[in-house]
Write a structure and sequence with these properties.
By secondary structure, the protein is α+β, with helices and mostly antiparallel strands. Helices cover 47% and strands 13% of the residues. It is built from 8 helices and 5 strands. Helix 1 crosses helix 3, helix 1 packs across helix 8 and helix 4 runs antiparallel to helix 5. The model has no long low-confidence stretch (mean pLDDT 93).
């Protein structure tokens, strides 16, 4: 698997470039896998403005599906990928979140779901413009740099609305390293052994068929 000797900043940059290149495949995989929920993983306001694009992707309540798919895509490019799970108590009860850990970088395909400010849903404010139009749909950075990155975003939020909708310490709880659950996020086993699909829903079959097309195209390059 991929073992980088590149400087840390260059490793992060290359991972971001790869994520950009993989977005179309990732989004189509999510469309197949989430089925009728697909429209819910794109922000309603941004979807009306730009359609189903990287600028509208959020991944709400679909961190598991997102990591299941993105882990496979990154591994197909030679990366070692771990899946990290944490649980935290919220006003709605105990909630889980999973994200990827790749080459010393946190890679979260669904971080935007934690950045949504519900105080104004129908207006392209400065904060919303920065979150959706200027930032990547994926959060990719070393953990200490993520704190600074998101804190800067919250400063824009505070400037826009007078106060930040969440404190940085509470926000960062979403990326605590509590449990490694990598083994339970293995799309490879279904791609490599279709007998395992027998008891799975149809959308697993459709996803594997699409992934096989993706792999075939990669071999031709």
């Amino acid at each position: 698997m991929y073992k980088s000797v590149l400087p840390r900043i260059e490793r992060t940059s290359r991972l971001r470039e790869l994520a950009y290149d993989l977005y179309k495949t990732f989004d189509e995989s999510m469309r197949i896998f989430t089925r009728y929920e697909y429209h819910l993983i794109h922000d309603e306001f941004m979807k009306k403005k730009v359609g189903y694009q990287p600028k509208s992707f959020v991944g709400t309540k679909n961190c598991g599906s997102s990591c299941f798919i993105m882990k496979y895509l990154l591994e197909s490019k030679g990366y070692d990928v771990n899946v990290i799970k944490n649980s935290r108590r919220t006003e709605y009860g105990l909630e889980d979140h999973v994200f990827l850990y790749v080459d010393n970088n946190i890679f979260d395909p669904t971080y935007r779901q934690f950045m949504i400010d519900k105080r104004r849903k129908d207006f392209m404010c400065e904060y919303k413009f920065h979150l959706f139009a200027q930032l990547s749909p994926f959060l990719i950075n070393e953990k200490d740099k993520i704190v600074k990155q998101l804190d800067n975003l919250l400063k824009i939020n505070k400037k826009t609305y007078g106060s930040a909708f969440i404190e940085i310490d509470e926000l960062m709880e979403n990326w605590e390293f509590q449990e490694d659950v990598t083994d339970t996020f293995d799309l490879h086993k279904f791609v490599n052994n279709k007998d395992l699909l027998t008891e799975k829903p149809d959308y697993y079959h459709y996803l594997v068929n699409f992934i096989e097309e993706f792999n075939s195209q990669n071999l031709q390059k």
